Structures are given as C-alpha cells and as structure tokens.
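A quick aside before the break. I want you to see a complete sequence-to-structure record at least once, exactly as it would be stored in a machine-readable document. Don't worry about memorizing anything.
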Amino acid sequence: MSETPTGTLGVIALTSNAMALIAPGAFLWVTYGIQAASEDASGNSTAKDMWPGVVFALIVAFSTALPYSVLARFYPEAGNAGAYYFTDVAFRKCHKEGLRKYSRVTKLITGWSAHLFYWVYPGVMTAFAATLLDWLIELGAGEGKVHGVVTALFAFVFAAAVAAIGVKGVSGSTLTSIIINVVQLSMLVFFGILNLHFRNANPLDVGTARVPSGADVGSGKPSEWLFPNVGEILYPHSGGGLLFQASIAILILVGFDSATSMGAAAKNPKRDIPRAVLASLFIQGCIAYLFEYFAANAAMSTLFPVRDGMTGFEAAGADMAPIGTLAEQVGDAVLGDGAGAPFKIIMAITVLMAVFGSTLAAMVTAVSFSASLAQDHELPKMFGDEHSKWGTPWKGFIVAFCVSGLLGAVGAVGGTVFLTAVTLASNIGTFALYTMVCIAAIAAFWGPEDCPR
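That is the input. The structure line, written in tokens, reads:
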C-alpha cells in the first residue's frame, strides 16, 4: 500500500459517499412497517419504543465507528483495503508475539465478512428497488399486478445502472451520492415539517373525530394520538421493547465504515477518513433519523387508515408502505384535498433515488474489497484488473452487476421468505466485520512503542 496520498476527495466528498449508504430516505420507508409491527416475546407491541430504540442503536453504532476512525488514523496507507488492511497490520505489528501468527487468519475473516455484507447488500437493495418500482406501477395503473418476469427485468436494469456509474470511478459515484443526499434530506425535512404541522394544527380533529367503522378495536369511539404527549416519543416504555427496536434500528445505521475503503481516493486519508466515518453517522443518524422518526410518530393516530380491521401502529405494520400512506393522509390534510396521492408518489421516487445511492455506495465498496484481496493473491487476479480509461476494477463491477441483479430478481419475485434469508446473511457479515474491527483496534493498541496514537 502506498503511503503517498494521490486521491482527489476531501472530507465532504468522503462523508457524502458514506452518507449515501446509510440512506435515511430509503430506510424510513422500508423499515417503518417492520418497526411498527414489532412485538416482544410476550406478544406486546414495542412500537412506542421506536425512537429510543434508534438512540440505543446509535450508541452501539458509534462504539464501532470510533474504532474504525482510530484505525483509519493509525493506518492511512490502507488505500481501498480498509478493514481488511487494518486487521492484517494490527495483528502483524502487535508486540504480543502470540497474536502475530493470527494476522492472515484475522484479515481473511475480516475480508470475507466484508464480502458477505457488501456483496449481498446491493442485492437486497436491488430487490427493494424492484419491489418499489412494482408498487409505483401498480399504483399508477390502479389495478392489476406486475408480472414476475418484468420485476426480474427491473432488478437487472437497476443493477446495471448502478454498476455503470460505479465503473466510472469516484468522481461519478461521488457526484451521484451528493445529488441523492441533497434530494433525500430535503424531502425528509419537508415531510417532517408537514408531520409536525399536521400534529400542531390537527386538521383531522383527532380527539373529536371518530375511529373509522371498519376498525376491529375502537370503531366509532373518539380518535386519539398514539402519543398523547409528544414527549412520550422520546423515552423507553419497556426494557424489552427498547432492545427489540434497537435490534431493528442497528440495521439502518450500517454503512459509515464504507469511507475507510476510499483511502486511495482521499486527498488526506489520515485526517479526512476518520472525520468522514463519524460525520456520516452523526448527520444521518443523530440528525436525519432522530428527526424523521420523531416527526412521523408525532403524526400517528388511530385515524391512520384502517387495514385488515386494524388502525394505528397495527395498521402501519400491515401496510406495504406505511410511510407512503401517512404521507398521503398528511398531504391531503395539510396541502389540500387530493394533494396526498401525488405527494406520496413524489416521495416514493426520492426513496427510489436513495435506494440507488445506497446500492451504489455498497457496490463500490464491495468491488474495492475484492480488488484488495486480489492484489493480496487471495482472490483471482481478474478482480483487480483496472479499466484502461476509468482506472477501476471493471471486471469486479461486471460480477457485482450479475450477483446484485440475480439476488434482486429472486428476492423481489421470491417474496418475503427468501428476501429475509438474504438480508440475514448480509447482517451476519456486518456483525462479523464490525466485531473483527473492534478486535483489531485492541490489537493496534498493543502495537510497538512507535505506533501512532
């Protein structure tokens, strides 16, 4: 690895790439229904612990982001290898001789854990994108269902578009990430402000208006806010509920580490990569996620459209796109009758853009990891072959397109069971990767006396 910085990206560009992978614009839409439907072991709803669950998950995420930022400062010469290089050097230079022999083992565990996460994750997001495209088409058509072959084609086209931008290098992917971040954050702020105005103005007369007659529980009774006092959003309602919600929320915060795989593109990797790791998590987690979850929960009431006899959080949990349904309800009430449906569609398009940005950031990181392993003779040489014009490992992007397209097509067509299994595999890779990085950080502090601290 070269110790001389040759890249062009500063801290803002590095942060923007990592922010695109965390993608609050995508994950609020994708996971809110899961969080609303979450129950503890006794079958009690944990939905009211959603916001504190995100806070708890943020604490856990920062406990991993800090080791990443420290290792990036210790080893700025890592280039695009990131965590793979960190664990190798941390153990190889450790002054505890008994640990040095584990250098190759630990770097391989780290490298393949990263592969399990970053190579599967784009496929999961491609499946979400294809499913969202189906939903948009069905919404526009008014009736009928998109054929599975068309859904599979959506997945491959989406994956091809992502790979085409990725192969053009950091300039193309960074510009795309910046644009997508601006769009998704602008929409989230606008949606959050609408929700808070909806709560404050109460145009639906929550508290006076009656629960719709189709509801199994509370039908005909006065409606109510799910959080009568907005302060109740902020604190835990049960320890079990907090843990259940945090276990879901941690999955929407991963991706900050992708900045450590852009060392070769950074102007000053020792200074800027640690900052990008922490800044991306702070902006997307502490600001975007906490604001949007607070605003969305503040707008939830028992007037949320009835679904399968349920309302409130139960109806949200059964809804394919509860944030879209909430956007339509709030849009009609605040922007004017009939404005909700187009607002929902516009918001869904920005979600699709956020999914694209997240997939792009993950695919670029996946291919970078593979190129690093190829340079280390742990993968076939083809994964490190660079494009004559763009200087990127183009063959790796072709493989990534095929893998993402296939996983996305099968995930979108195969349904929830297969998609859940693929997501679980990606999550296992995530936690294994983060565990190895924390261990490497400990080993790094056992390094030689001249180790930079």
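Two observations worth writing down. Residues 91 and 102 are 7 Å apart (CA to CA). Residues 103-141 form the longest helix (39 residues). We'll return to this after the break.
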